[in-house]
């Protein structure tokens, strides 16, 4: 019986984090869909929704503050709350990168596509998957999964390399593509940064479970 | 929502010494209100005014009003026993009577004239369940003495004794200060359950306890109520410098 209501509040906090995670996952998927389909309306929606994600973050932060101030969390409980505070910052930044992609979609406007997009959606799908699994690892306190996910950042870096080389080739062959290719490079960069943030989340899972803060995968970018 | 209890310009004097200064406070129904402040700040005096407990102390004087559901409990027509039935109290030291657990719980109902055995048993079981003590005592509650229970169990027995007379408000004066941390947490958890049905006002020295259990917090200092608000606000962003100094341990 002791601390039942506090445990309940901690669980609610984790639920809220999952809700925020799914909002962010949706933002990534929609931003990429908007890019593929040149759907300006959808891009605008992603930008508008970013405000909701920010609000969610402030709400969770507020709940953490309340628990810290009123429940005197110690040891594992304290680490959960500190981890949540850190993870919501990463989630918010990931959403900002999705918003960044949506803004690029607006800048591209109705310029003809440079090429069919293959690696960019692949990158986005991979990141969405890593994000989802990192939050599951958080809920399940699964450090092994967290370590595995952060190692997968290398795949993202490789995809980014590939995109970079391909776009460079376009620009060399035809300088008229420079503007569009640069925009796509920015998209790639936004995605690459998202994956680094997922690695941060994985680090927090390890911290939450073990109390150790360790750098898990230093991205080459 | 109308407040369950409301004080208006409540002042209290022990002889010439003024212990409370014009305290106006509205206590909400089905919420836990915590009163905090340093020793001698008047918080216990205030609590005892809420069910006319101070009346028996000689050379004391009270000014102002205490309204229970909008009616002044100090009006000439109000019956003190009735007030204390509606507003029960749990004290710092668990004070079971030297009777069986059953005898303790039915003490109040018996005094109020209930003597039907089955009915008393029903009241006792319900009260012990509500006080989260039933499972620990159900095998020998009729024989075992209330005094033989552990401190935490004794305090829950005292809560059951209060619940047995069907109060509307429960006042708690440092209910956990004689208990160990685990027994304390059990009482705190119990308070969360009780607030669904009752209105609780708790005085505590333990600021962390106030933060953990209450919905509303009032900070008292030298007989004055300095600040009153949602617990979350009091502990994250108090509006008065003196409250901030007290809760951050920079007082004095």
What order do the helices and strands come in, and which of them pair?
The complex is a heterodimer of chains A (221) and B (252).
Chain A: H1 4-37, H2 40-71, H3 75-108, H4 119-139, H5 143-151, H6 153-173, H7 178-210
Helix pairs in contact in A: 1-2, 1-3, 1-4, 2-3, 3-7, 4-5, 4-6, 4-7, 5-7, 6-7
Chain B: E1 5-14, E2 17-27, E3 32-36, H1 43-49, E4 60-68, E5 71-72, H2 80-86, E6 87-90, H3 101-105, H4 107-111, H5 117-130, H6 134-137, H7 151-163, E7 169-173, H8 181-194, E8 199-203, H9 207-213, E9 216-221, E10 224-230, H10 231-236, H11 241-247
Helix pairs in contact in B: 5-7, 7-8
Textual characterization of the structure:
Chain A is mostly helical and 221 residues long. Chain A has one domain: Methane Monooxygenase Hydroxylase, Chain G, domain 1. Chain A has seven helices and no strands. In chain A, helix 1 packs antiparallel against helix 4 and helix 4 packs antiparallel against helix 5. The mean pLDDT of chain A is 94. By secondary structure, chain B is an alpha/beta fold. Helices cover 35% and strands 25% of the residues of chain B. Chain B contains eleven helices and ten strands. In chain B, strand 1 and strand 2 form a beta hairpin. The radius of gyration of chain B is 18 Å and the shape is globular. The N and C termini of chain B lie far apart (37 Å). At the A-B interface, helix 1 and helix 2 of A face helix 8, helix 9 and helix 10 of B.
């Amino acid at each position: 019986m002791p601390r039942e209501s506090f445990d309940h509040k901690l669980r609610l906090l984790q639920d809220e984090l999952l809700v925020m995670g799914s909002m962010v996952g949706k933002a990534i998927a929609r931003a990429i869909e908007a890019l593929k389909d040149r759907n300006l309306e959808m891009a605008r929606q992603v930008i508008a929704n970013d405000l909701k994600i920010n609000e969610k973050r402030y709400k969770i932060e507020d709940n953490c503050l309340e628990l810290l101030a009123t429940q005197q969390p110690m040891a594992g409980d304290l680490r959960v709350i500190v981890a949540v505070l850190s993870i919501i910052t990463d989630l918010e930044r990931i959403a900002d990168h999705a918003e960044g992609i949506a803004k690029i979609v607006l800048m591209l406007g109705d310029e003809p596509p440079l090429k069919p997009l293959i690696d960019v959606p692949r990158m986005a799908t991979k990141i969405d998957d890593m994000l989802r699994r990192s939050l599951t690892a958080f809920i399940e306190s699964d450090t092994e999964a967290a370590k595995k996910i952060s190692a997968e950042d290398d795949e993202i870096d490789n995809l980014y390399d590939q995109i970079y080389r391909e776009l460079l080739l376009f620009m060399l062959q035809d300088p008229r593509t420079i503007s569009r290719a640069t925009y796509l490079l920015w998209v790639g960069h936004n995605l690459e940064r998202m994956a680094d943030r997922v690695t941060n989340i994985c680090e927090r899972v390890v911290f939450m479970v073990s109390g150790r803060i360790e750098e898990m995968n230093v991205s080459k970018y | 929502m109308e407040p369950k209890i409301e004080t208006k310009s409540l002042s209290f004097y022990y002889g010439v010494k003024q212990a409370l200064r014009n305290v106006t406070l509205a206590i909400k129904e089905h919420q836990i209100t915590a009163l905090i402040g340093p020793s001698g700040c008047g918080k216990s005096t205030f609590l005892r005014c809420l069910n006319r407990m101070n009346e028996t102390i000689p050379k004391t004087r009270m000014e102002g009003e205490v309204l229970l559901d909008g009616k002044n409990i100090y009006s000439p027509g109000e019956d003190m026993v009735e007030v204390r039935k509606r507003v029960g109290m749990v004290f710092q030291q668990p004070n079971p009577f030297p009777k069986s657990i059953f005898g303790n719980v039915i003490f109040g109902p018996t005094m109020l004239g209930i003597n039907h055995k089955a009915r008393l048993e029903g009241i006792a079981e319900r009260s012990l369940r509500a006080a989260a003590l039933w499972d620990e005592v159900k095998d020998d509650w009729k024989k075992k003495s209330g005094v033989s229970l552990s401190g935490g169990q004794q305090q829950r027995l005292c809560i059951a004794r209060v619940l047995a007379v069907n109060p509307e408000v429960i006042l708690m004066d440092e209910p956990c200060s004689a208990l160990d941390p685990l027994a304390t947490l059990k009482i705190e958890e119990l308070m969360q359950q009780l607030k669904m049905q009752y209105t609780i006002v708790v005085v505590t020295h333990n600021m962390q306890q106030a933060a953990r259990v209450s919905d509303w917090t009032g900070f008292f200092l030298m007989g004055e109520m300095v600040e009153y608000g949602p617990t979350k606000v009091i502990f994250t962003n108090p509006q008065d410098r003196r409250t901030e100094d007290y809760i951050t341990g920079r007082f004095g």
